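hey so u asked for the seq, here:
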Amino acid sequence: MELNISKYTYINQLFASVNGKKLVVTGAPEKGKFLTALYRKLNVEYPKFFKMDTLSKLGFLASELIFENGKQRFIPREDGVIICFNRSSSLETDILFQSSLEPGNFFPSPSVFVYTLPNIVAGEIAIRNKFLGETSFYISEKFNPEQIFSAVDIAFQNNKTNFVLASWVESFELSCEVFMLLVEKKTGKDAIPFSIKCITELFNNEHLYG
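ran it, structure tokens below
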């Protein structure tokens, strides 16, 4: 079975790109502020974005870049799989929530607590796009192209799977980035062969540039 990367995107706290082409985003470059500037550039009407933690914002924005202008977007479908990877899980939000449990703070925020599970990222993407298929989140010591390739390949063993959205999405301390791939069975004029080599090269090109 021939699989291809039909689209990919990369976002960090300073810039965003789609298929290797940097986007022009007007706004402050600081972590968090850039993500909001990118959100506004995309003209997305999704107020829940402002309640998300940084990890979910990264995944959400990457998926918006992947699926923007999709002809059949927001139609419920079960033929897609969402797979996410990172190193720090939801530790950034875990620490924030833990601080709300310190003596003197009697009302820990449920809106923060909900993001103390890393798979909420995949859930936010699925809810936004009405994807009803499988979602999963894996913890890895570092960006691992072999692991990503294997997980996607396994997902396509199910004949019902027509596309997989795979991403490395990390937000903790000085790390803030998402690299997302849309892998499909069909081919297109801009499709890239899905392989460990291509995953590695695409990520390195964006990550090193960022």
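The chain has one domain: 4-209. The radius of gyration is 17 Å.
lmk if thats what u needed
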